[in-house]
Amino acid sequence: MSTAADAKSSPAAESPAVLRQAGLLEKFHIIRSSISFYNNVIVSASYSSPNLLSPDRLVRALHTVLSAHPSLSVGIQLPEEPTGTPSFIRLPSIDFSKSEKFIIWESSSTSPGHAKEYKDLICRLHNTPFSNEDLKTLPLWRIGVLKRSYNTPTAHDSETNSEGRIDYEIAFSFHHAIADGLSGAAFHYSLVSALNSVDETGDSGANWDIYTPPKDLKLLPSMDEILDFGMGIKTAGKVAGFVGKSVLPSFLQKTFWAAGKIPEKLSPTKIDVLTVEPYVLENLVKTLRAKKISLTAFLTYAVADSLFTILKVWEKDEFAKIKYVKVSVPMSYRKNAGWDNTVMSDFVGAINWDIGKFKSLEGEVSGMKKLTAELKKESTVTRDSEVGLIALIGDLAGFFKGQVGKDRELTFEVSNLGILDAGKIGDPKKKGREKEQKEGEGEGSKMGAKGSEGWRIEGALFSQSASVPGPAFSANAVTVGGNMAIVVQWMEGVFKDEFMEALVKNLNKTLSEFSSKA
């Protein structure tokens, strides 16, 4: 907690303290963003509360969250030389009196318009880069708060849902160098806990406008400091493959479809959202378990199936040329490092997977099983992973810019954040809810139950901005309370909006039908 005495020490006058150099993957994300080829990641959560969320309550809660996660109090010092390594610095302070630079407050106009306004907020955050000028002075994160309205054209005005609770979407947007998707979930675990612990009546002498990071602030080490990303025979094969691709005659190269060439600059991120209802997801998971297929592997093939289906209708000539698509599937290295899902850092890797054009999703069970096994195997070892190859690139900015105009290397990416921990999202335990229901039938007892439940998270969305050299589109999944939400993202100009909306609609249908057909 920062007090008035902290403010008197003029933390802004201090020169930034260098905490450590960026690791391999962190450097990759920093340089890619510094040349405006990629912006950010967002994990957004749907919060419900018996009370209004005031700016004061949010700021007080954020003081607690910042104290728990060192990466939220750092900036970036870019290297002077193209081949240099960026460093993380300790921000002298975070000034919440100027929070309009990193906290957005909005309210939905009507209940029917909320979904569109929610998507618009996420797109706006995705399309707001972390400028190089602000890296040393502003935090590497932003928050968007959207208060849900229950106003309808045919009913009286209402700010509350049927339970008398107030709902908010709180979107956490962050620089990929300081956090991965699971870190976004960790932020919300900390925030919902802090909101439930805030005492707005106490600490009258505290200065909540200024948060001063501790002098001894320490970042977690980068993952290549504590894990082995060395290169062996397997890596040598990958490098030989890259070299061979540049010298082999085109008719000897294995070609795949990835929606054209890499553009010169980043265009706006567009998204669409689909939600898989609990009964559909439950049936789907049962079917996959029986076949020993992971949900992530299935989603990867389901997205490919929808892409093939829509291409066949919308782009017949392109569809006829397709032999296969290349997919990136991220995975976490947290277990390898001995860390759980409550810490914030950037600890991900990925595998690339080829999917040949197929006629029916039900006929691809074998491929899904192979991908399931590959993900399980690759998540346990780091040596010879894709991350290690970053060490071979001296000038990352030149490497990224050198890809412009060339064929894109990835068709799409599927990233599954998994299930948010029910014990960490403010959700009362089942026994507690049953006890409340049994304790009284009267109106008074119902009101008491509403007031006592406090803040909780009832849904989430996971997404990332478009990337100039990255996949043509991505599908990002997260599950809360039995509901799985999938955000499909693409870059304006790569696909028509109507094409991607058709793909999402087809994917939604595919997820519902697979269990009955397979």
UniProtKB/TrEMBL annotation:
Residues 425-444 have a biased composition (Basic and acidic residues). GO terms for molecular function: N-acetyltransferase activity. Pfam families: AATase (PF07247). Residues 425-451 are annotated as: Disordered. InterPro entries: Alcohol_O-acetyltransferase (IPR052058), Atf2/Sli1-like (IPR010828), CAT-like_dom_sf (IPR023213). PANTHER family: ALCOHOL O-ACETYLTRANSFERASE 1-RELATED. This is Alcohol acetyltransferase. It comes from Arthrobotrys conoides. The lineage of its organism: Eukaryota, Fungi, Dikarya, Ascomycota, Pezizomycotina.
